């Protein structure tokens, strides 16, 4: 059996556009949270407080979305978001975001929106809510109630 894997290269070109190979990326057009797929991060280095926050978010969103995903690779999740395969991504653990900086730029250039869980611009060290922009306000509202 021969298995051939296609390599996808996500990148930014001049002019503020993100691409996968030669195809311009665009976030999903999903406009209702009930039709969206949201990914969230939960890793072994989360402390008890962060684990409880993630479980609280899962409980809040489980019946209000089409589905929740736990992928545990912000690079993959953000590229999926930029290409419209998922609609949102949540990370409750405050960090500088260095491991996800490129992915956040790719999402932003594909039309996405990035804030902290409060819906404000991210600070240097912060949590993250990243979405296609169309479900962002509804997502932030549910996370904060």
User: Low-confidence spans: pLDDT under 50, at least 5 residues?
Assistant: none
CATH class: Alpha Beta
Query: Could you give the order of strands across the largest sheet?
Result: 5-4-6-8-7
Strand percent estimate: 15-25%
User: Main sheet?
Assistant: 5 strands, mixed
Q: Give the termini separation.
A: 52 Å
Q: Which word captures the global form? A: globular
Order of helices and strands: EEEEHEHEHEEH
- Give the rounded overall mean pLDDT: 89
Top keywords for this entry?
145 residues; alpha/beta; D-Maltodextrin-Binding Protein, domain 2; 5-stranded mixed beta sheet; 3-stranded antiparallel beta sheet; 4 helices; 8 strands; 28% helix
Polypeptide structure, described:
The protein has a single domain (27-143), classed as D-Maltodextrin-Binding Protein, domain 2 (3-Layer(aba) Sandwich). The strands form two sheets. A five-stranded mixed sheet has the order 5-4-6-8-7. The chain has helices at 48-61, 74-82, 101-109, 136-143, and strands spanning 10-13, 17-20, 23-24, 37-40, 67-69, 88-95, 113-115, 126-131. 35% of the residues are buried. With 145 residues, the protein is α/β, with parallel strands linked by helices. Helix content is 28%, strand content 23%. The protein contains four helices and eight strands, in the order ββββαβαβαββα.
Topology:
Blueprint: E1 10-13, E2 17-20, E3 23-24, E4 37-40, H1 48-61, E5 67-69, H2 74-82, E6 88-95, H3 101-109, E7 113-115, E8 126-131, H4 136-143
Parallel strand pairs: 4-5, 4-6
Antiparallel strand pairs: 1-2, 2-3, 6-8, 7-8
Helix pairs in contact: 2-3
